[in-house]
Amino acid sequence: MNKxxxxxxxxxxxxxxxxxEVFDAYxxxxxGKIRVDWRRDGKYIIGEVTAxxxxxxxxxxSGEEFVEMVNDAVYTMYDVPEDxxxxxxxxxxxxxxxxxxxKLEDVGIKSxxxxxxxxxxxxxxx
Length: 126
What we know:
This protein has 5 helices and 4 strands, in the order H-H-E-E-E-H-H-H-E.
């Protein structure tokens, strides 16, 4: 985690430094589980995300982009500031299983649901 923050601070190249403790606090603020009900609509995968008592929508053109957009939507809903959001994206807290990722990539599957658990790997600070 500190390595991600260090790299991000170098790339950002500003006087503002990201603090590992703050980064960890934002990751721990995110819900432990989310559910995404998704469907295909033309070129897009559209999903309704349920995170605790919050419901919101997102979309993506590919399975990979859709998962990134789900993560980004959760970060937005839980008020992760933009400076930290870029670093948080590197850890991608919510990842589907390989079976679920294959469903997202298979254009023959028109709809499904995914239950995501927050990745403990994303929360490691070593």
